[in-house]
Structures are given as C-alpha cells and as structure tokens.
Amino acid sequence: MAEPLRFDGQVAVVTGAAGGLGRSHALLLAERGCRVVVNDAAVPFRDDVPSAQRVVDEIVAAGGEAVVSTADVVDGAAEIVATAVEAFGGVDIVINNAGIGASTPIGPDSVHDWRRTIDISLFGSIAVTGAAWEHLARSGHGRVVMTSSNTSFGATRTAAYSSAKSALYGLTRSLAGEGRPVGVAVNAIMPAAWTRLVAGLPPGPVSELMETRFPPEAVSSFVAWLCHPSCGVNGEAFSVGGWRVARVVLAENEGVQLPDGADPAEWGEVAGAFMTLDDLSAPLSSTDEVSWTAFLLDGDVPPEFLPGGPLAWDRRPRSA
User: Fold this and answer.
1) For the chain, where do the domains classified as CATH 3.40.50.720 start and end?
2) pLDDT in tens, 169-217
C-alpha cells in the first residue's frame, strides 16, 4: 500500500474552485495539509457570499487552511497570486481550472462571441501561471496543472471551447521546457467529471453515465499526484475520469516523400500511406520533430539536434 501523499507546508492556488472539479481539488489538497487559495469570480444570485467563500468555510471547518479570492483570472491574476503570498508566504502549486463553455457556431461575429470563453480558459491560465512563475521557481518543486478537455479531439458546436482547451496542450509542452531548469513541472489533464458545466447537458444516457460513473474526486486524486514534489512527470497530458488515466500525445506517422517537383495529383495516389495510423511516433518537442523529419528525408540528423548539441536541450527525458 502506497504511503499517503501529504502537502504540509505547501501553498496551492486553485482557480474556478467554487464547485465541481476546482472545489474537489481544493478540498483534497487541504485535507492533505496544503494551504489553499480558493479562487472563483462567480457570486450567487440570492446572497452576497461569494461561492468560493463557501469552499473556504468547508476547508476551515474541517481543520484546514484556506483563503478566498474572487479576482478575475485574466485581469486579476496578480491579485490572486498576491493573496497567496500575503496569506501564506509563497506559491508551490497552481491548478488552472477556471473555464467557461460556449456553443456559438462559427460566423461573422465569432471573434466577439468567443472572446470570453477563450479569455477565461486560455488567457486566464496564462495569466495566473505567469503571475505565479517566479514563486513556483523559488519553491524548487513548483507544480502547474492545466485543465484541457477531450473537446481537443473535436466537438461539434463547441469550437470556441475546443480552441482554448486544445491550445493548453501546446502551452503545457512549451512551459514544461522552460520550467525544467528551475524545478517547475507543468502538465495537463483532459478531465471527465460530473460538474456544473456537464450538468447542463440534456437528460439522457450520457448525462446519467457522467453523474454515476465520473465523480470529480476521481480526477482530483490524479491531480494531487501530479502536484506532489515526488511526481517527476513533466510536459504531459492525460485523459482522466472514472478512476482511469491515459496518456495523451500528439503523434505522427513516418509520412511519404515525393520527388522534387511532383504534381499535386500525386499526393492523392499515396494518401493511404500518409493517412495510416500504424507506426505512430510522438515527438518530444518541435526540435525533436524537425530532427526526426531530417533523418527520414536524408538518413542523417544535424549535429545541433543530437544529445549535447545546442538545440537538444528538450530531447532529454521529460521529468522535473
């Protein structure tokens, strides 16, 4: 039996934590000794008590330590982090959970209609992580969790949400490289859980399945592991839900090379070869992909991409 993970002395910022996954993350970390900033800008309609304060009250009633932040994750990111520093002296963990959905289809006003969804889900994660970065680096074992979504695989009529959430994959992979030298690990989850957003689905088999089989706690358990100093995973994405976890990668096959000057029609003749899902590889980074492409084309890898070369830094094993 594994030794239970503890977070004594650590400080976490959890955004979008008034309910659902964020609340579950905050409660679990606090239960394990973490001091938590519970952030959510939402305020109930029927009273003036911020929703996030209710979660803080739960934590304190259970003997934990927590403070509330109702600042906006985009415009108030610095304020959120300042709340953690003033209350607890620093930041060790950032869980970017805040996000809102939108079902507006593509059209002439999409830039305007989609802006808030993309701002909260993507730029909010960027803003809070950026505001906390120096504190995470100072911690020596900083941990960041981005909340992506399985809509990254494609979802009809949720392009705004899908766009923001899929962008978090590239952000995670890139920040992992920046954080590695200073001990900051950045990972992403694509969660499946019964939350306020999912509860808005039309009644039916899918809604029933989500409610009965996908509790938020199943996701929070894995998130807590990602946040612990003992976890060496960095730059990865995971499908998480129902007490199941699977690694998610961006992969490509070996492809097809045509002779110089080939006619566009010739690509159609070899489409079966470059469309295959057999023998996929998952590059570690953009430089890894470029060097692999060079090898496939010429049978050789430029020395600058080899281990020890100036562009080989992110070809090392992805660990904190």
Assistant:
1) 11-248
2) 999 999 999 999 999 999 999 998 767 766 666 677 766 766 677 789 9
Residue 169 appears among annotated catalytic residues: no
The phi, psi pair for 297, rounded to 5°, reads -75, -45
Q: pTM of this prediction?
A: 0.89
Q: Which of 88, 114, 133, 161 is catalytic?
A: 161
Model pLDDT for residues 72-113, shown as the tens digit of each residue: 999 999 999 999 999 999 999 999 999 887 778 888 888 888
What gap in Å lies between CA 228 and CA 29, rounded to an integer? Answer: 10
Angle at 130 between CA 32 and CA 90, to 5 degrees: 40
Name the nearest CA neighbour of 245 among 263, 219, 267, 282. Answer: 219
**Cβ atoms 287, 305 nearer than 8 A:** yes
Tokens at residue 103, please? Answer: 């079902």
Select the CATH number that applies to the domain covering 11-248 from these four: 3.40.50.1000, 3.30.450.20, 3.40.50.10860, 3.40.50.720. Answer: 3.40.50.720
For 228-301, where are the alpha helices, taking DSSP H only? 265-269, 271-274, 286-298
